[in-house]
Amino acid sequence: MNNETLSRSAFLRSLGLSTSALMAFYCIGTTMTACGSKKEDDPDPGGSTGNGITGTTTGSNIQFTLDLKHNTFAKLKTAGESSIVGDVLIAHTTSGTYAALSKMCTHEGTTLGFRSATNDLACPQHGSEFKLTGEVQKGPNTGGNIPALKVYKATLSADGNSLTVTS
Ligand code: FES
C-alpha cells in the first residue's frame, strides 16, 4: 500500500478497527456536530418553536397566543414588564394580572408605552395617558378630546406558560 495516498479511513482500517470504532475516531477528530448535539447547542432548549407567537396579531381579527417559555416573551412572567406584539401592547401589571390594549395612541397613532410605576400607558408624542381599562386619563397636550383605547382580553393558561389575547 502506498503511504503517500493512504486515506485516514484506509489507514485506520489497516489497523483493524471496526466501523463503530472508526466513527468514534471521526467524532473525536471533528467538531462533533455530525455525531449528535449537546444540550447547550440546542437553540431552543425550552422546547418552544418559531417566534413564540401563534395566531393573528394585527388587523381587525386579533387572536393569538404567546409562548411565555420563549426567550422573547419570558420577561412577561414578571410583573411590571410589557411587550408589543403586532398591534397590541401587553403588560403584566404591577397588580399581577395581564392587560392587552391597542398599542396605538388614539390621537395620532403613536406607539404607547407601559409605565409600571403608575400602571398605565403613556404617549411620548403629546403626553396622553390611558388607564389599563382603555379610558383616557389625560388628553394630548395639544388640546382636544380623544377616544378610549381598544382593550383586548388576555388570558393566562393554567400552567402559566402561555397567554392568549382575543378581541
Ligand atoms: S399621538 Fe399620542 S398624544 Fe398625540
Automatic annotation (TrEMBL):
Q: Which InterPro entries match?
A: Rieske_2Fe-2S (IPR017941), Rieske_2Fe-2S_sf (IPR036922)
Which keywords does this chain's UniProt record carry?
A: 2Fe-2S, Iron, Iron-sulfur, Metal-binding
Q: Which domain of life is it from?
A: Bacteria
Signal peptide boundaries: none
Decide whether keyword Nucleus is in the record: no
**Keyword Metal-binding appears in the UniProt entry:** yes
Identify the SUPFAM superfamilies for this entry.
ISP domain
> Ranges for the Rieske domain?
76-158
Please give the CDD domains that the UniProt record associates with this protein.
Rieske
The name of this protein is Rieske domain-containing protein
Organism, scientific name:
Ravibacter arvi
Taxonomic path = Bacteria, Pseudomonadati, Bacteroidota, Cytophagia, Cytophagales
